[in-house]
Amino acid sequence: MRERLINGVFFDLGWTLERPASGSWMLTNRFFDYVPRDIFYAIDETLRKEAMAHAYRPLEEHHYTPTLEEEDRKFIQYFRDLNAFLKLGLSEEQIFDIGHDHTYNFSNYILFESTIPTLKTLKEHSYRVGVISDTWPSTVPQQKEAGTYDYYDFLVLSFELGVLKPNPRMYETALEYMGLPAEQTIYVDDLTMSLDKAQTYGIHGVCSIADDPSRIITEYPCVRHPGDVIDLLKELNGGIL
Prior knowledge:
By secondary structure, the protein is of the alpha/beta class. The chain has helices spanning about 30-35, 35-40, 45-60, 70-85, 90-105, 115-125, 140-145, 160, 170-180, 190-200, 225-235; strands at about 10, 20, 110, 130-135, 155, 185-190, 205-210, 220-225.
């Protein structure tokens, strides 16, 4: 039997294997329970982006987060800072509720329909499967509850390393765990910036356009949902899976 060229798959999580229930990774449905969408999006876009960048900066600068409790504390502060910057009028009790929901409400994240069938197919065909993702401690129990965790051979999660993509440590750690030559792997992510860095290590980039299937990406092959990865692997491996 002809040998496969690709034997390992790295996945990002957001807009690759799952999507945010609210449409936003930072602003959950609980946030919009207190701040109606029409009111929030009536705020000047430049001001909104400036406020979210301001509130997010401490999460970037002090990204190492060893526990769920620390994540909870950080996101309560995020929403406290966002509230102060935009003068949203949220009470401290509401801010606590929003931050707590962000950490502990796993229904904020929804798997794509083809996610588990795709992971199952990859494992049945003896692919190594890993995750490279910018995320938080709540990801681990959330992925376990979603039923995806046991399909992964490993996860490289930014909160554990204290750095975000495209920091080299994310890719170098992932390749070490994968245990395959980079040329035998693909990385599926929705951000070309992350794929560009992966490519410098010899990893083949694949762009997920699940967030917007009309997006035109010319630098990389694209997938609209996880199931497309199976078809792409067949193509890359000369017709075999």
